[in-house]
């Protein structure tokens, strides 16, 4: 799995659920009845004061967490002769009690009883369907939740943004990602049109959908919104990972630098990634400063690998004094041939030939070099500068056995042969 993809995997699905409050109060029900009456869609019956008073008393008991008493009183209400609307509101109050009791299965049954009553106000039907869909969602019964919400969509004229997000969540959980995308985009667009910013968990859901659809271009745009509206290090890091996936290293670096400048990179891996990105764009000095501060702050551990990376940064920045100190620590800690090889390179740059020779010998002895041929070429170069032409010739001859170094080694061998002949001629002529 690609590094950038794995960064996203750990967090991309954590988008959160809409808060669920699936209950209808008596006051709300009265308002809904009035609205339905005005629409004249259905003939609405009234809630008589005596029934209202009994149901309101039940609500008060439920609010006091006296659930058994509330259910007993509801059972007594059921013995009273009631019209269809009063029956529906009795079932609705059962749902209220069960929900507050956290008996969600009971609440679901009560809401289904509401819907089973004939001729209930359209507004009550709408509210009940919506609440029921949320309850199914809480129970992780996504299929039934989506079916119920789709019924709700058929009986409302102007669904709100929350409803589209709710349906998108259900579709996401059912892995219907292509269907979830239009709903989440619709919800976000509706909120933006009102001049408001979309909720963070809405954008997180959009992010999750784009990720599942492998739409990294739009995923980057979504993460830009998240990082701008809800600034967090994780969003900048994920945005950088997406830019890496898209093959846009400059944008990847910009995202990481934005997070760093806001002190949002708080983990070792995040700081190391920033350093690698800086070196990848040939900004080694800043990379070294990032690593140096991370080590000082004890966010980055002084492991051989991390010290070696810092040494690389100082060396690329041509800060050889600092590079030698750090690379010597790395080589001592790791005993790795590559670290001794890097140290030999630094001493070579400073023309410290004997120190360079000691370290290249240590590198070859370690026997775990990524490119043994490069070590032989370097050693030959050092020996040439130490005026040991014969031994240098032998090193280049060894390097010539490696295909990737054959051409360069052959050039050196020819040059040394020519230099030896020149010296022999000069000696004989003198």
From TrEMBL:
<protein>
    <recommendedName>
        <fullName>Tetratricopeptide repeat protein</fullName>
    </recommendedName>
</protein>
<dbReference type="InterPro" id="IPR019734">
    <property type="entry name" value="TPR_rpt"/>
</dbReference>
<feature type="signal peptide">
    <location>
        <begin position="1"/>
        <end position="29"/>
    </location>
</feature>
<keyword id="KW-0732">Signal</keyword>
<dbReference type="Pfam" id="PF13432">
    <property type="entry name" value="TPR_16"/>
</dbReference>
<dbReference type="InterPro" id="IPR011990">
    <property type="entry name" value="TPR-like_helical_dom_sf"/>
</dbReference>
């Amino acid at each position: 799995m690609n590094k950038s993809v794995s960064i996203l995997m750990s967090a991309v699905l954590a988008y959160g659920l809409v808060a669920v409050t699936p209950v209808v109060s008596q006051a709300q029900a009265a308002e809904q009845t009035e609205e339905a009456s005005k629409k004249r869609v259905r003939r609405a019956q009234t809630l008589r004061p005596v029934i209202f008073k009994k149901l309101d008393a039940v609500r008060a008991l439920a609010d006091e967490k006296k659930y058994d008493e509330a259910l007993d009183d509801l059972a007594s209400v059921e013995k009273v002769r009631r019209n269809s609307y009063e029956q529906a509101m009795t079932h609705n109050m059962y749902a209220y009690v069960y929900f507050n009791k956290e008996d969600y299965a009971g609440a679901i049954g009560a809401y289904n009883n509401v819907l089973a009553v004939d001729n209930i106000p359209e507004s009550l039907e709408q509210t009940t369907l919506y609440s029921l869909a949320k309850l199914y969602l809480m129970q992780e019964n996504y299929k039934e939740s989506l079916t119920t919400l789709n019924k709700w969509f058929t009986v409302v004229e102007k669904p709100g943004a929350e409803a589209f997000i709710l349906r998108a969540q259900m579709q996401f959980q059912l892995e219907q990602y292509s269907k979830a995308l239009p709903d989440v985009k619709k919800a976000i667009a509706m909120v933006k049109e009102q001049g408001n910013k979309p909720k963070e968990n809405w954008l997180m859901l959009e992010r999750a959908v784009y990720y599942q659809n492998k739409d990294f271009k739009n995923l980057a745009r979504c993460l830009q919104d998240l990082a701008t509206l809800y600034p967090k290090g994780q969003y900048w890091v994920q945005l950088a990972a997406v830019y890496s996936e898209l093959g846009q290293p400059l944008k990847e670096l910009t995202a990481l630098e934005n997070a760093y400048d806001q002190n949002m990179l708080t983990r070792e891996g995040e700081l190391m990634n920033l350093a690698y990105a800086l070196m990848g764009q040939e900004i080694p000095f800043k990379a070294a400063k990032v690593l140096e501060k991370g080590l000082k702050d004890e966010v980055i551990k002084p492991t051989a690998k991390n010290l070696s990376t810092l040494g690389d940064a100082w060396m690329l920045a041509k800060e050889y004094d600092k590079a030698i100190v750090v690379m010597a620590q790395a080589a001592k800690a790791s005993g790795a041939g590559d670290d001794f090889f890097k140290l030999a390179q630094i001493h070579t740059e400073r023309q410290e030939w004997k120190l360079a020779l000691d370290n290249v010998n240590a590198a070859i002895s370690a026997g775990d070099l990524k490119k043994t041929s490069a070590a032989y070429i370097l050693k030959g170069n050092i020996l040439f500068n130490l005026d040991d032409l014969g031994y240098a010739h032998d090193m280049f001859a060894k390097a010539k056995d490696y295909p990737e170094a054959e051409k360069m080694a052959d050039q050196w061998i020819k040059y040394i042969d020519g230099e030896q002949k020149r010296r022999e001629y000069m000696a004989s002529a003198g």
